[in-house]
Amino acid sequence: MKTLDIASAVIGEGAKDGGCKYGASALLKSGMVQSLARAGRSVQTLAAVTADPMSARDRMDVVARFSREHAETVLRAVRGGRQLLVLGGDHSCAIGTWSGAAQALALKGRLGLIWVDAHLDAHTPQTSESQAPHGMPLAALLGHGSAAFTEIFGWSGKLNPENVVVIGVRSYEPAERALLEALGVRIIYMEEVARRGFAPCFAEAKAAVTSGCAAWGVSFDVDGLDPEEAPATGTPVDNGIPLDQAMAALSLCRDDPRFIALEIAEYNPLKDFGGKTARAVHALAVAGLGLGVPVPAEDLVS
């Protein structure tokens, strides 16, 4: 089994509520390494990459600079043959995560990605009223939006639309939906997840994102979960994915050698009274990256 690297994406400047900048540190302090070690993994933590607003012109520039540095960290890990757990950070961190992974695979083939989220995250600067970069990463990875986001490593279109599936969506703007539908990205809205169950939807998504790809990963926004079980996130949306269903689905990642990275974003420890959401994040990580039978969430963090 590959060594598991944990990469801390220390950024909150891409979101309106910047509390998720402290997410990675809080999760490590609450025992993420120990949870994964108990689940059979050999784990090492990488040096954190931290956004620096003092050296940038504006928050778009903050995210662009951060993304380039974070992408280099991911590139080295994937090229080194290691599997990754990326802990955010607001979801703009995905620009760097998956740009780095795509660059590492450039001579081998394409990258597939399952994007679990209550939102589409497919705005561009031209369509976003808030101009919040954490609402733009998926569009950027597909080659749309600011060149500072799309052209990392000098090329655009890190993801092909046919190898991207978005699951759990229940809050979005028309412009985002129009872009993804025009590109042909499969969107599994929460109504379909509620009808079919998350695991069957995830299995369908896995088949799509692995077809013709050298490797694949999962980017999981904490707000994809039901806020009753994971309330500590910046933009919670009611009627989300049940945690037990998410854990069961992520266990489908375990035995696939092409699964290179799990990213978990938008955990805000400043809102996590009692540690309920931290337990959910630990459970997701262990379900997707551990060995053997997934551990119940309540057994992971006291």
Automatic annotation (TrEMBL):
Cofactor list: Mn(2+)
Alphabetical list of InterPro entries matching this protein: Arginase, Ureohydrolase, Ureohydrolase_dom_sf, Ureohydrolase_Mn_BS
Gene source species: Acidovorax bellezanensis
Pathway in which the depicted protein is active: Nitrogen metabolism; urea cycle; L-ornithine and urea from L-arginine: step 1/1
Catalysed reaction equations from the record: L-arginine + H2O = urea + L-ornithine
Protein name: Arginase
Group of enzyme by EC: hydrolase
Coiled-coil residue windows: none
Family statement drawn from the similarity comment of this UniProt entry: Belongs to the arginase family.
Catalytic activity, EC: 3.5.3.1
Family matches, as Gene3D superfamilies: Ureohydrolase domain (3.40.800.10)
SUPFAM superfamilies in the cross-refs: Arginase/deacetylase
Keywords: Arginine metabolism, Hydrolase, Manganese, Metal-binding
Pfam families membership: Arginase
